[in-house]
Amino acid sequence: MKALLLKDWLVMKAQYKFYVLLFLFFGVVGLLSDTGYINAYCMVIMSTVSTSLLQNDETCRFLTYADITPITRKQVVAEKYVMNLLLNVVTCLFMGIFRLFAGLIHGNLAESMTEMLSVFCLFLTVGSLMTGISFPMLFIDCSNSINLANSAS
């Protein structure tokens, strides 16, 4: 599991610098505007990173390669869900820090803390729900494309 997480981390680090810049942009805009809804966009975008990682694995035919290793498909699927949860938690924490600073800047720290906790729970739910809906469809699609490739050769 750790090796799969490390693999996805290295892929993200090499290919998804755009997401980090977008994350910082939405954080700064949320900081300056004193509204929490702008951070929701960041959460939705960061939730799609794990879906992009899965598409990258399909493009590189990693699931075919994983079949010849001791890694089971259940471990690959579990790793994608764990990676998504880690990305969602990290995004929520950073957005919470931005909201805390926004509360300090705009002078409504108590409101920002209450809003931050409720938004934190909402973001985790929405991020997990998005992947909970999209991952099964993507894994079925990946399995079908692998079966078609194997039957063609």
List descriptors:
single chain; 153 residues; mainly alpha; 0% strand; elongated
Detailed description of the structure:
This protein is an all-alpha fold and 153 residues long. The chain is built from six helices and no strands. It has helices at 2-15, 17-33, 37-59, 62-66, 73-106, 109-152. Helix 2 runs parallel beside helix 5. The longest helix has 44 residues, at 109-152. It starts with a helix and ends with a helix. The mean pLDDT is 75.
Shape: elongated
- Helix-strand string: HHHHHH
Main pleated-sheet profile? none
Overall structural class, as computed from helix and strand content, comes to: mainly alpha
Number of strands: 0
Return Rg in Å: 18 Å
Mean pLDDT: 75
Tell me the distance between the termini: 30 Å
Low-pLDDT ranges: none
Query: Per DSSP, what share of the residues sits in E-state strands of 2 or more residues?
Result: under 5%
Number of helices: 6
What helical percentage do the residues reach? over 70%
